[in-house]
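For the sake of transparency, this paper describes our internal protein records without simplification. The tokens are whole numbers drawn from a learned vocabulary of local backbone shapes. One such record is reproduced below, unchanged from the form in which we store it.

. . .
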Amino acid sequence: MKKLLFALLLFAGIPAFAQQNANEALLKYLPAYDTTWNQQAKTDLANKFELIAKKWPDSWAANYYAAYTKAQLSYLQTDAKAKDALVDEAETYANTAATQLGHESDEIYVLQASIASARLSADPQARWQKYGKIFDQNLDKAKAMNPDNPRIYLLRGTSKFYTPKMFGGGKKAALPYFEKATPLFEKEAKTDPEKPFWGWNTNQWMIGQAKGEEKE
């Protein structure tokens, strides 16, 4: 039944994408996805990215963003099984994107780190050691390739933010990472999906949260 419903959605979505290429379709929905935290709206948009990946299966960027949106959507789930199901889908799309791209990429490593973080969040106590290591390794590889990728510092800062102070985390420890990311985000053109630019809005929100400690 799920496959039938998705096939119907895909068929219904084809006319809207008929006159576009993959990148144009991605740009149509990326701003909305990165500016809403409403679960239903984000789910609907994630489904659109999946439709784009199905319509342009050879587009690494389409598969990349299908992975990204699934991983991000998992954070809005409260049930661990529902989180894992979305992360499973994210991993599949991410692996496809990496294969299609055909070479190492800091953005693929950042995406893999984001997926590891999403997997960890489904069961932090049981998974922090395994997936925390995968998270760190991928970000280290990304930084070695491109230290000016702002998503490296966004993810590092977010990890610090949610780590207890007794283990070196907290708002104060996280803030420098978000502040380092800000000028790097500002340099991004945000016009080419094949040069990922997600994270600006999240980074700005996290800065506000981290600075909140100073007011307490």
About this structure: The chain has one domain: 23-215. The domain at 23-215 is CATH 1.25.40.10 (Serine Threonine Protein Phosphatase 5, Tetratricopeptide repeat).
